[in-house]
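For homework, think about our next protein:
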Amino acid sequence: MAGLSTPERIAIWLMTDAAAQVEIEYWPEAQPTERSRSAAVTTSSDNGHAARVDLAGLAPGTRYGYRVLLEGTPVPQAPPLTFATQPRNHRAPRDLRIATGSCAFIPDPPHETDPDPKAFGSGFGIFDTLADHKPDLMLWLGDSIYYRDSDLTEDSAARMNARWAATRRFPPLQRLLQTGQHLAIWDDHDYGPDNSDRGFALKAQSLGLFQRYWVNPSYGLPEAPGVFTQASLGDTDLFLLDDRSYRDPDPAPSSPEKTMLGSRQLQWLKEGLKGSAARFKLIANGSRMLSERPSETSRGGEGWHNFPEERTAFLEWLRAERIEGVLFLSGDIHYSYLTERERPGTYPLTELICSPLTSRVHPQPFPVNETPGTLVTERNFCTLEISGPADERVLSISVWNAAGTRLWRERIPAAALQSP
């Protein structure tokens, strides 16, 4: 699996079946005889037999072929493995296809290929359908694995690692992992137990495993560890958030101090947004950002609506600072929809909620304020395609079912995300 490239670097993730010395041999596709080899990395039981191999000194704007060497011997691979570096002027507008989704439940053996569509985990052909779209980037919006209660008790470190390893070796997932480049955030199930928060006792182990199995550009800050990070593709900046490490319990009484993101992460987000000149600024979070309670007596599921004072202060900051180009992405709730939040005097805020990939669709969706015609109650994934000349950029959002049928499409011109 390839992480997000820069013009001259990329990280490749892989996992072996047993301890081994691993190298990556790579070459420009147009010059197959010009072969280079990475430094050797050793996988062992200490690192879950997983490895990150960093490649540097690459040519900008170039597609490379590569293969894995185990103990110096090439591993047969069909189809051939490839990756592409970003162009030298990597901030220039270009056509992009970002795929996204959340909630990928993989059952335990021997039920991995259970065809029952009503099973909690089913419909694994969606991974190949997703790969067929050949996204430049696959953005995983959380719940990419599901820890079970038994993973979080005795021998937790070994059991948690085993859950990751079992998910990664799942055969229907392999083609997607080898397609495009990948970034990820977490939500409750790949962080800890259901609806978990900052009080989760094993969150340090959970962060270490997330770092082992993904190759994001960074993980939080030295003084604020977590999974939040920033990435750039062309004229699009992605702000990937951590909604668990600093989260107060959802039922806690509302107050100005009650937080989902934590003060340091919020400061980081504001600094990044204020310093960004990108046409589109995508803010991705595991929990919903713009949803509302169905009533005063119902929490309406997880989301920033359970932290109203923190959210109100941030949205007011967005308006006051005239931050343009913002679109929110989230998952978690096992159905998909688009929602808008009107803001007097400036452009409305839009959020795409995209879920689930293979988990069961929520049998009783919470009432939501969806854009008419966008509520999807079947397994699905979403694409965001960014295209057009520099002064007429358009972001097109589509939702697709597991068979590859487009369920709806919404076009958002960049001009619609600007203040008057």
